[in-house]
Design a protein that fits this description.
Helix 3 crosses helix 4 and helix 4 crosses helix 5. The longest helix has 27 residues. The strands form 3 sheets. The chain has a 4-stranded mixed beta sheet with strand order 4-5-7-6, covered by helices on one side. Strands 1-3-2 form a 3-stranded mixed beta sheet. By secondary structure, it is α/β, with parallel strands linked by helices. Helices cover 41% and strands 22% of the residues.
């Protein structure tokens, strides 16, 4: 029996069993549609040492970015949450977020999704204008394992959680995806193009790898 508790998620697109550890230490096993449930237990048992190491790393990282109680980051700013009875929709007033009383996370996610469309759209428009390219559409998602994507048709998808990161991180991710409008793979040509536009992209990518798990409400 595996000692780590886990939850199972079925995916129509998954081709193999995938184990992830969220920022709060929750283990999720993604199974292909037809995979038997015992495959999840086997994967967790096999990866038990990695899961333990990953949880220790996440705990250390979380300690590095402890937030003041009752606050949330927004592209480098710190916003203070102010609960209001009978409020259903989050509203920003300066550096204060007026939020529903009780558990406001669902309303906060809706707020960040709306804001992400605004923040990302103007960055995407500016980046494609500089590059002389065009994109086919913008979708805001809440993926667990991906920050952004660009389809072969030029459709862009971005994770709303990027608004919880410093602005330079969001700018880097936007430029990364705009480069994919010209080079779809991660060949040397792609990395050379990205470096010509974001010379310090390696530092931003390293920040996301280390602190991405902390970008949560």
């Amino acid at each position: 029996m595996a000692t780590a508790e886990y939850r199972i998620r079925r995916s129509q697109r998954a081709r193999r069993v995938r184990v992830t550890v969220d920022g709060d230490g929750t283990v999720t096993v993604t199974l292909p549609r037809r995979a038997p449930e015992h495959a999840a237990a086997e994967a967790v048992r096999e990866l038990e040492p990695w899961i333990a190491r990953r949880r220790r790393v996440l705990a250390r990282v979380a300690e590095e970015v402890v937030r003041p109680a009752g606050t949330l980051p927004y592209l480098g700013e710190t916003l203070t949450l102010r609960p209001q009875p009978a409020r259903e929709r989050v509203h920003r007033r300066g550096d204060v977020l007026l939020v529903p009383a009780g558990d406001p996370r669902a309303a906060l996610e809706r707020f960040y999704r709306r804001a992400a469309r605004r923040e990302i759209a103007h960055r995407l428009d500016a980046a494609t204008a500089r590059a002389g390219t065009r994109y086919a559409g913008l979708t805001i998602r809440g993926q667990r394992t991906r920050w952004a994507s660009c389809s072969t048709e030029g459709a862009m998808s971005f994770n709303w959680r990027l608004l919880l990161a410093p602005p330079a991180i969001l700018d880097y991710v936007v430029e990364h995806e705009v480069c994919h409008l010209e080079v779809m793979d991660h060949s040397p040509r792609f990395w050379a193009l990205l470096e010509s536009r974001v010379p310090d992209w390696r530092a931003h990518a390293a920040w996301l790898r280390r602190y991405g798990s902390t970008l949560a409400l």
